[in-house]
Amino acid sequence: MFTVEEVFQAYYDCRRNKRNALSQCDFELRLERNLMKLMRDLNAGAYRIGRSIAFVVSYPKWREVWAAQFRDRVVHHIIYNRVSDRFYRRFIHDSYACIPGRGSLKGVERIHGFMRKATENWQHPACFLQADLANFFVSIDKDILFNLLRKRIDDDETLNLTAQVCSRPNPAPIVNSPAWKSATCRTTKAFSIVVTKGFRSGIYRASFSPTFISTLWTSS
Fold first, then answer.
1. Beta-carbon contacts of residue 62 (< 8 Å; ≥ 6 apart)
2. Are residues 50 and 170 in contact, defined by beta-carbon separation less than 8 angstroms?
3. Which residues, other chains included, contact 82 with Cβ-Cβ below 8 Å and sequence gap of 6+?
4. How many distinct structural domains can be found in the chain?
5. Which residues pair with 197 in a beta bridge?
6. Which of 7, 71, 76, 198 would you call most buried, defined as having the most Cβ atoms within 10 angstroms of its Cβ?
7. Which residue pairs, CB below 8 angstroms and at least 24 apart, start in 119-126?
């Protein structure tokens, strides 16, 4: 059962870095009404994820972003608050993305330590490898992901909600970019082409997802 305290805490977490966002301000105009309706919908099994907002960014590279409505972001935080701790305990020490008490600064400090060690305090040259996974999120098989999630999330309420959030975005998103920009990315993105694949990078804590998914995979 979803509680009032749980829903309100998720809202406060959600608004932390979006205090002046228009979507947050609009939601806050009828805050209590919106949160109580959300809680009733969740408990009744009537909650349905809303339309995503799709737009294209060109820096540092051209890519398509799917952003959730603020109400759906609150739901993302509800799920995150319920399941994150059980996955944090399984991560290796050098996992930093979106983990409380770690993050980018801790990762940079750790790398700096490795650099000093490899160069013997900057006395010798050293090499490093910079790598990235092309189209990582859109290549994730949702059936495999959900089966792995099923092994780690033991209550049906949270599992069903997670399944809805991880599912394919609404086929008719709110597009906030010119058609020519969307066409630029269309050949590299598979959201509209492959129904069984594609994990939305615009959902909350997407940076948490690669470690989360790899942990599920290697420990399954």
1. 56, 184, 185
2. yes
3. 158
4. 1
5. 141
6. 198
7. none
- Determine contact, residues 151/220, Cβ cutoff 8 Å: yes
- Print the SS3 string covering 93-162: CCCCCCCCCCHHHHHHHHHHHHHHHHCCCCCCCCCCCCCCCCCCHHHCEHHHHHHHHHHHCCCHHHHHHH
Which tens digits make up the pLDDT trace of 155-199? 889 988 888 877 655 557 788 888 888 777 655 554 444 456 666
What 8-state DSSP symbol labels residue 16? T
What tokens does 174 get? 């709110």
Residue corresponding to tokens 């009828």: 30
Tell me the two tokens of residue 75.
Answer: 């739901």
User: What confidence tens digit (pLDDT) does each residue in 14-63 have?
Assistant: 898 777 888 889 999 999 999 999 999 999 999 988 888 888 888 877 87
Identify any residues that bridge with 57 across adjacent strands, giving them in sequence order: 63
Across the strands, what pairs with 53? 67, 174
pTM attached to this predicted model: 0.79
Distance, CA of 135 to CA of 69 (rounded, Å): 23
**Pairing outcome for strands 174-175 and 53-57:** parallel
Burial level of 182, CB count in 10 A (0-12/13-18/19+)?
Answer: middle
